[in-house]
Design a protein that fits this description.
alpha+beta, Alpha-Beta Plaits
């Protein structure tokens, strides 16, 4: 899933916006019909992999997340008005290979945008603006979290596809460059 920000909002890849989105995600953990399992914050958009009971739960869950994130981002940035360009763009993931590719795309997407960041992310083993630091499926093993780092709170995968099915298509490397 992709959710784009309106123009001239600034970047999500900064401390204030990161913690605003982090707080919005924390509120989503109570939901039983919808959960954000993987997320990556980019400069002007975010990529998410979510699970939902059905299309209505997906719509309601994304609407609740975007509403909470928008309120918090506006407060953090000292502004008012629309935050997200549109609702969101979603694609249903239905096979282990597609799940693995989607997870690699979300968790390693920062490698596609490294020059846009203005940060030295090329030296990072994982993207600290994603849930990559706490992802337990890396080929290389778990990552040591930097002191004081507060990871993005994601929901535990409930479906077979996102819990174990994706592994049938191969492991995910921290160094992988995602495709289109």
């Amino acid at each position: 899933m992709t959710s784009r920000l309106v123009d001239n909002l600034g970047t999500l890849r900064a401390s204030g916006p990161y913690h605003a989105v982090r707080a919005a995600m924390g509120g989503m953990l109570r939901r039983t019909d919808f959960g954000i399992v993987h997320i990556s914050l980019e400069r002007d958009h975010m990529h998410l992999i979510a699970e939902a009971h059905d299309a209505m739960a997906l719509g309601n869950g994304m609407r609740a997340f975007q509403s909470s994130a928008a309120r918090r981002l506006n407060r953090t940035l000292g502004r008012r008005g629309r935050v997200f360009e549109d609702r969101y763009h979603s694609v249903a993931v239905t096979s282990p290979r597609q799940a693995r590719r989607a997870m690699n795309y979300v968790l390693n997407n920062f490698r596609r945008h490294q020059l846009d960041d203005g940060m030295e992310t090329r030296f990072w083993e994982v993207d600290y603006f994603s849930n990559g630091p706490t992802f337990d499926g890396w080929r290389e093993g778990m990552v040591d979290l930097p002191h004081g780092y507060r990871p993005l709170p994601v929901a535990r995968a409930r479906t077979w596809l996102l819990r174990v099915g994706w592994r049938k298509a191969g492991s995910i490397s921290q160094r992988a460059m995602p495709g289109r």
